[in-house]
Design a protein that fits this description.
heterodimer, A: 407 residues, alpha+beta, Porin, 16-stranded antiparallel β-barrel, 2 helices, B: 204 residues, mainly alpha, Cytochrome Bc1 Complex, Chain D, domain 2, 0% strand, globular
Chain lengths: 407, 204
């Protein structure tokens, strides 16, 4: 009986051991497989971490580099003149930003002239220091904050029509740019939003024209940034705007300072000895004053805007150039409507420009229709009805086609 | 035997941990973006964006630029439009949340989001009102008029929930609505509630 019991236990033990061997072998096998999978995963995690860190480098730098801008090409058909294909401008804008502290902004302007020469201009270059939520200090060459058109609306992909309103281009009534120091920003007054810009700058210069090279009269105000202040007096200006409701903005602008004649027509030598203390001959610094007003109302598919600007140059007691005061004045109003559910947009603009020279004065009505291939790529067709001195260049009606692309 | 089983458990735990690590590194790390500016307010960002950009130029859709490009662009526009710093941060927050890809119709993307329990009206006023307007007629070119008979609300709930969930671009519209209106926190319950509110408030 004892022997039988011993034999039975022995059989059981042998059975258990023999059954355990394959389980142990299987466990060892599973263990090896798991170890292999863990090793593979660890390798993948290591590789992934490396890739993630490389990717994050570009997502999280302290310096951002960004390029924007716009370009336009077109076709111009004047009523009295030759039809021409034209390149309006190629205007890349460069942004270099260090965190939310400072940004360098610069826009270049490439144009092809009628003679085929390529012109390059620095449209603006500013270093913008974001000093608080309500103020940014800009230093450098900046677009004039007078009104809306020059600082915000002139890029071709933004302008609803293929030309600028009369008096808002170069040598018009509205200042283009200036070189100096500006503070701008926005702040709420109760529930009403406002924005502002104030600046001090070198100011504009004046040029003159002549018919007989002996008598000169003021031709225009060169209100573009100059790298020297030849009249010696700084110019001050700014704009303040209020948005009584979010769809309406009303702005008022001013500029005051001095300006002097620094260029005679066609490089004619001044009758007295060149520049003396920065002036041509005995030219003196004249008063320079600008006032402006602008508004915009937009809702849904509809926008209505307008702008007025007046530039006055004061009298001069001495000088090569005639001493009378002179005034340039311009206004425009524009209506645009996007046809609901389509990519078509219609626009109409009325503009008027008065200068001391009748040959430059023009009253203009412009009709336009746009096809928005996308919101930043627009095909425009416009027809300008110009009413100026009969036979002058500004009296010629024109048809304009333009492709404008903002990027 | 016990020791072997413990080792297997231990290896499985490591395997799970490794998988979790892979998930974490794979799905959290790539969403890292610049640590500036400070996060803004999404709802106010959508409102300020809708109220300001269209004043001068056609709206640029959120998907046109990447997150870092929106930072520079928004700071550039801060100067042009006279925005405050807070408004700029709010717009950046809105645009960075809204430049996600419009996903294929029928996606179940939203199922992973936990609903916050907001009412339909609360969701509409925080997420939708900037573009669709308080009166449901749309504040931007391309935004549909909810009050129009035969308009957007003539579609079935299934279609509209799909549009809200995955984003949608109407025929002739210059830009698309981002998935969930750009608000990643909207869950399926929120979307159903906001659609119910839109139908009750603006439907005919």
């Amino acid at each position: 009986m004892k022997c039988s019991s011993y034999s039975f236990r022995k059989k059981i033990l042998v059975s258990v051991v023999s059954m355990s061997l394959p389980v142990m072998a299987l466990a060892e096998s599973n263990n090896d497989d798991l170890q292999t999978q863990i090793d593979d995963l660890q390798n993948q995690v290591t590789a992934l971490n490396s890739e993630v860190q490389q990717a994050a480098e570009w997502k999280n730098p302290n310096t951002l580099i960004h390029m924007a801008g716009y370009a336009d090409v077109g076709f111009v058909s004047p009523e009295n003149g030759n039809d021409s294909f034209v390149i309006g401008t190629f205007s890349p804008i460069f942004h270099y930003q260090f965190r939310d502290v400072v940004m360098l902004e610069s826009e270049l302007e490439f144009e092809i002239g009628e003679d085929g020469e390529t012109e390059v201009n620095l449209e603006y270059l500013t270093i913008d220091w974001f000093v608080s939520d309500y103020a940014t200090i800009l230093a450098g060459k900046f677009l004039s904050p007078v009104g809306q058109f020059r600082q915000n609306l002139h890029p071709s992909w933004i302008n609803k029509l293929p030309s600028a309103p009369p008096g808002f281009g170069h040598d018009g009534a509205a200042p283009i740019s200036d070189l100096g120091l500006q503070v701008r920003g926005g702040f709420p007054i109760g529930g009403v939003r406002t924005n502002y810009a104030v600046y001090v700058s070198n100011g504009p210069e004046l040029n003159s024209e002549t018919e007989d090279e002996s008598e000169f009269e003021l031709e225009g105000v060169r209100a573009e940034a100059f790298g020297a202040d030849r009249d010696g007096d700084k110019t001050f200006g700014g704009r303040f705007a209020v948005l009584p409701v979010s769809s309406i903005e009303i702005g008022l602008s001013f500029v005051t300072g001095k300006a002097t004649v620094t260029e005679l027509e066609n490089g004619v030598e001044p009758p007295s000895a060149g520049f003396e203390s920065g002036f041509i001959g005995n030219e003196t610094a004249r008063d320079y004053d600008v006032i402006g007003a602008d508004f915009v109302w937009f809702t849904g598919n509809f926008s209505f805007r307008g702008e007025y600007v007046k530039t006055e140059i004061g009298e001069a007691e001495t000088g090569v150039t005639t001493g009378e005061a002179a005034t340039w004045e311009s206004l425009y109003t524009q209506l645009a409507y996007r046809l609901p559910g389509t990519k078509w947009e219609a626009a109409i603009r009325y503009g008027d420009f008065d200068s001391p020279h009748d040959s430059q004065d023009v009253t203009q009505t412009m009709l336009g229709i746009n096809y928005l291939v996308s919101n930043n790529f627009i095909a425009k067709l416009g027809y300008e009805i110009n009413d100026g001195v009969s036979g002058s260049a500004v009296d010629d009606d024109r048809t304009l086609l333009q492709l404008a692309y903002g990027f | 035997m016990k020791s072997i089983i413990n080792r297997i458990h231990s290896q499985r735990f490591k395997l799970s941990s490794a998988g979790l690590l892979l998930l974490v590194t794979g799905f959290v790390q790539p969403t890292i973006s610049a640590d500036y500016p400070k996060a803004g307010n999404f709802s106010n960002g959508s409102k300020v964006w809708a109220e300001n950009c269209n004043r001068c130029h056609n709206m640029r859709g959120p998907k046109e630029l990447k997150d870092d490009q929106w930072i520079s662009t928004a700071y550039h526009m801060r100067l042009r439009a006279g925005l405050t710093g807070q408004e700029t941060r709010d717009i950046i927050t809105f645009l960075q949340a809204s430049n996600t890809k419009t996903v294929a119709s029928g996606s179940t993307l939203v199922s992973a989001v936990i609903s916050k329990g907001a009412t339909g009206m609360e969701t509409y006023e925080k997420t939708c009102v900037a573009c669709h307007g308080g009166d449901g007629k749309g504040t931007l070119p391309g935004a549909p008029d909810f009050t129009s008979s035969g308009g957007a609300l003539s579609k079935t709930d299934e279609v509209l929930i799909d549009h809200i969930t995955n984003g949608f671009q109407s025929e002739g519209s210059p830009m698309a609505m981002p998935p969930r209106g750009g608000n990643a926190n909207l869950g399926a319950t929120d979307i159903a509630a906001v659609l119910k509110y839109i139908r009750e408030a603006f439907g005919k």
